[in-house]
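tool_call: predict_structure(chain=1)
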Amino acid sequence: MSRLIARAARLALGSALFAAVFLAPGLRAADNVVENRVQFSVRAERDVANDRIGAVLRVERQAPDVRRLNNTLNALMADAMQAIEGVDSVEVQTSPAGTWPQYDNKTGKLKQWRGSQTIRLESDDFAAAQSLMQALQGEFAIQQVVYSLAPETREDVEDELIQEALIKVQNRAELVSRQMGMSGVRIINLSINPASAPVRHMGREMAMSARADVAVAPTLEGGSGTVTMHINVEIELLP
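tool_result:
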């Protein structure tokens, strides 16, 4: 509830800034005649520390028949889920097992079956994610690690950037009006366009041996991403 109240307060401030631009003295709100149009854009951006991690761990095995292979994969997944159970700060998603035959290159006869299955971990608790990855890497390889902003963090930052960008809109509109000797401006069109922050990937180069004798904890450094807000605006200069 406190988050909703805080966001409402930020948006209310943004609306006040918006009105300061739109409701300038001499505004002709009911006038449908548009003259002296000017278009421009502004941008506000901020570097924000990534606070969410996603990791994909993969196990692959082989067996002479599908039944034995599926039993092996099921047992490994059951052990993994037991290790994960009780860690409420980490969200878990599993994929269905995939199996495929392997044939002898010379004879063309079935040689064996191979199969794999993955687990995806997501959390804003880096320490908990690191601990689970260490616990699982005795059997699972870390296939990919992705760092990003939590949706709540992105929403809060975007609200703040909207306010900053609207101030820039107001300042630029007033500058153009003043330099052109006009009495004010009217907003004809305004669009707010957030730009997605780049997601930081660490891929196969950090994958660890699924059969390592000693599980070494992966080093997790989330880095940062840039959140950008663009506002495109078209104004009419009022004489």
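agent: Residues 20-31, 204-212 have pLDDT under 50 and may be disordered. Proceeding to next step.
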